[in-house]
Amino acid sequence: MKYWISEIFTSIQGEGEVIGIPSNFIRLAGCHLRCIWCDTKYAWHKYDGEEMTIEQILDRIDKRIRFTTITGGEPLLQDILPLVEALKSLNHKVLVETSGTIKPSKKLREIVDIFSVSPKLSNSGYKFKYDFKEDNWATYFKFVIVNPIEDIQEITRFIRENNIEPSKVILQPDGRKENYAESLRELIDIILKLGIPFRVLPQFHRIVGIQ
Q: Region 32-40: what's the mean pLDDT?
C-alpha cells in the first residue's frame, strides 16, 4: 500500500480539543477543495507529494510520541485504513483532520480515536450541504471565522439543521488576519454578547510561530 505524502513532521498540536499535545503529523497530498483562506495550498495536488509505503512513513515518525495526526489536503481521498491500522498496532492514538465532505467507512470510524471535522462555510468560497443529522461521526467541529457575525449565523443554522450539540463547536479566527490577538478578542466578545456556548480557541502555531 502506497500513499501520496506532502510532508511528515513532529510538532505540538495547534488547534481543536487536542491543542498543545505533542503529535506526529502525516500530511497527505491531494485535495478536492480550493478554500480561499487555505494555509496548506502546497498540499492541494497529489503529484506534488512523494509516494511512500506504510513502512517508509512509519520510519519517518517519532516513535517516542504515541499520538499521530493524519491531515491534508483531504486525507479521506486516499484509503487511510491500512495506515491507521499500522499506527494502532504501535499503540498510537490517531486523529484524522478532514473537511467532512467525505464520509469515513464504518471500519475507519471504529479505530480512529478522534475525527476533527472542519465544515466549509460560505467564506471558503464553497457552499456544501452537509448531513450529520442521522450520521454524526465527528468528534468535534472546527470553523474558520472570517466575518464573525455572518459566519456565526451560518454556523448556528448548521448545528440546528444537523442536531449538533453546541459544545462540539470550536471557532478559530482566520489565520491571515494581521492582528491575530485582536481577532480572537473580537470573536470572544461576540460570543459572550450573543450568549452562545461555542468554544473560541486560537491556532497555537500562529501564536508561537511553529509548524
A: 92
